[in-house]
Amino acid sequence: MSAVFLGVRHHSPACARLVERTVAELRPAQVLIEGPAEMNGRLDELLLGHELPVAVFSHYRDGERSATSWAPLCDYSPEWVALRAGRAAGAQVRFIDLPAWHPAFAERTNRYADAEARYAEATERLCRRFAVDSSDALWDRLFEVEPDGGLAERLDAYFALVRGDAEADAGDRARESYMAAWVRAAVEAAGDRPVLVVTGGFHQPALRALTASGARDGTDGAGWERGADGWPVVPAPPDGAMAGSFLVPYSFRKLDAFAGYQSGMPSPGYYQQVWEAGPEAAADGLLRVVVERLRARKYPVSTSDLIAARSLAEGLTALRGHPSPARIDVLDGLAGALITDDLDRPLPWTGRGTLAAGAHPAVVEMVAACGGDRTGRLHPQTPAPPLVHDVAAQLAGLALDGGPEATYRLDLTDATDLERSRVLHRLRVLGVPGQVRTAGPTHGVDPVFTERWEARSVLGREAALVEAGAYGATLAEAAAVALTERTRSGTAEADGAAEALFDAVLCGTGGLSEQLLEELSSCVRELQVTGPLGEILATALGLWRHDRVFGMARGPLLAAVIDGATEQLLWLLEGARGSSGVDFPRLRAVVAVRDAVLHAPELLSVTHEVAAGIARRIAEDPQAPIDVRGAAFGLARSLGRVPGGPGASGDPARVVRTVARAGADALGDWLAGLFALARDEVTGAAGGDDGCGTDDAAESLIDVLDGLVSALSDEEFLSGLPALRQAFTFFPPRERDRIAARLLERRGVRGSSRSLLRTTADPLLIARARALEESVSRLLARYELDAAP
After folding, report:
1. Cβ atoms within 10 Å of 494's Cβ, excluding its own
2. Other C-beta atoms lying within 10 Å of the C-beta of residue 699
């Protein structure tokens, strides 16, 4: 006997019914299913009695890449029906696809991801031919609402057409070659009994051709070795790689195309009703559920609205020639009856993709009702990865396994509470729901030594733990690997490396963070953005200098991060060019460099003198951003080296006068850079006789700034006021009070400096009002209308 091929669409009730009927009629010796072949020895796990949907979760990790993949199954998945019905009929059931770790699945997180993007041209032609908006509506029209008679032939014709216009990629060719090898082996083993092959319809034409040719390899020329039992050998992961597969609970939300799912049918809740009760009952149920959900949201829906929606759905079913109501008939009927507003975007079921933000509330409830809220549950005897057992033991041992109302207040100076905190943070880093931190330290030098954690929904916790098992067998190991991957994957480029570093500290030091810090030390030497890099340096330096809770102070692990970040930042700052305005993250990065050079010189490969020289060059570079020039001037003075020596460029007063020639805006931006690094240039708080903040220099700079600002025209002052105000925000209130007192003294005015700092309105608003008044006065004078009464 030869093989019988059934090409199916994943998660299609019509295809699932066809598979069930075919197994009953054919009574095959072998049922071969598109699925991970490494699970063939564990098929009994799938049939333990789970509440579907569930998924086979697969993971892979080696020194170069990591991958995860899901193969979801629900009650009406043709693959699940083939497995269940095949076993019930006494057939040998096998999965025949490559393992999910195989390079053929590169960049694919869903084994059953549809190939529709590859045969879009054919489906678009069919959509135009049948006057439907989307491939989902086309599928319903051709298969889901049509009588079952002749379904197999229609499916064959459909998939032959769409595959004929598409070119399989290298991954699909490898998979089809491997699956064909299983089909040939099954035909040989079955003798005169039939073999049923259930795969995605995209693969069916190729499998039929490969099997008929009798070749032992596919179009790429790759052969597949057979084992002693006559079946193709399941490829094993490379030496040193970690790979595995486990069952996880799944949900209708994850299975829904409107939530971003990549495969099969949308609206799983609706099609579950189609599978269980047929399209008429599913249509009635959807109408009722949508109305109930809208009324629960206080959205006005009357009985007449429901009658109108039902009538419209029935009319559309007849008008479109559907023998039974299709999903789109019901949804369009509901939309026509319930939505009276103008919509600014097409209805979501006219295409595919996630539901857009701001959708009409009736549309939101329709999509939610179609999706359903079912969540699968695994049988208690289902094997789980070691991490699940390790987490359960740790939570019990540390009394963290409280109920849904549990709240934990932790003292981080207490050894037991610190360990409890680490366990909760490791779960947080792994994305395991259940507890949320509502209070605690937010960065490495935050003087907060307590935490508060509150219970949250544990929905999805079991699946998250199983999936986190891909990172390691213990909680500490898994958290370390997850953080390391987060850094390696480029999170640092998006401001996440400093957060990852602090997360590593919160999760525990030693073996947990050492691998991550090695990754960060190499990562920081490649970053090209000063702001995030400055955050990394500030976090690492703060922990190295001041930590008394997490065990990181003066530890060797942070040295490489501090050194690499300081060197890279100096290089980036010297190469910075051009823009106006103040970049505050960049200024904070310069502050971090200053602190590293002053307080951790023993960790740096950059010497004090080299850093000062770089600062001098930046301060004198006319191409450098003006705020960076001011910060570099302040950095050099903080390091005890005046840019340009005793000449004009090193005198703060003369430098300020030179910068002021470019305008008040430029002056304000330059001062912001200076004040971010060296406020003592104005306040004189440092004192001393080294030229780095003496009282004489401070008075001189205040006098110069006062003279420059006083000399500005009203227009210039109004234009530069925002930048100047921004520069002085770097001063705390007490220092601003000293500056105000000095200004009053210069003018011989007696009184409190606070009266100068406190106004009845925004100073910028006052300045604008004054400018407006003067403009009106000039206009009146021009027309000789300013005479006194």
Report:
1. 9
2. 16
Among residues 563, 560, 557, 567, the alpha carbon closest in space to that of 480 is found at 557
Torsion angle (degrees, nearest 10) of CA 638, 641, 642, 647: 170
User: How many Å apart are CA 590 and CA 570, to the nearest integer?
Assistant: 8
CA distance 242 to 495: 30
* pLDDT confidence of residue 518: 74
pTM of the model: 0.73
Burial of 273 (0-12, 13-18, 19+ CB in 10 A): buried
**Residue 405: how many other CB atoms lie within 10 Å:** 7
- Residue position matching structure tokens 């963290």: 400
| Pairwise CA distance, residues 521 & 532, whole Å | 14
SS3 (DSSP) at 61: strand
> Other CB atoms closer than 10 Å to residue 420's CB: what's the count?
23
Per residue, the 3-state secondary structure of 86-126, as one string, reads HHHCCCEEEEEECCCCCHHHCCCCECCCCCHHHHHHHHHHH
- One DSSP character per residue, 24-43 reads HHH--SEEEEEEEGGGGGGH
* First-residue to last-residue Cα distance in the chain: 116
Sheet holding 30-36, edge to edge: 3-8, 195-200, 30-36, 92-97
The whole-angstrom separation of Cα 305 and Cα 660 is 71
Identify the pLDDT of residue 258. 66
pLDDT of residue 536: 86
H/E stretch holding 153 reads: helix 151-164
**Greatest CA separation for the chain:** 119
- Among 296, 374, 367, smallest CA distance to 51 is for 374
Name 251's Cβ contacts closer than 8 Å, sequence gap at least 6: 53, 373, 374, 375, 376, 460
Compute φ and ψ for 244, nearest 5 degrees: -175, 170
pLDDT along the chain (789 residues), means of 10: 88 94 94 93 92 91 81 93 95 93 77 59 80 86 87 90 74 90 91 92 88 54 77 89 89 78 76 93 91 87 88 92 91 88 78 74 87 91 92 92 84 92 94 92 80 88 90 90 78 62 79 66 82 87 82 77 92 86 90 93 92 92 91 88 45 78 84 84 49 46 78 74 78 77 76 61 65 72 66
Distance CA 278, CA 256 (A): 20
| Length of the chain (residues) | 789
Angle between helices 279-296 and 361-371 (to 10 degrees): 130
pLDDT recorded at residue 691: 39
Find all residues with CB under 8 Å of 552, minimum gap 6, and list them: 444, 505, 509, 543, 544, 558
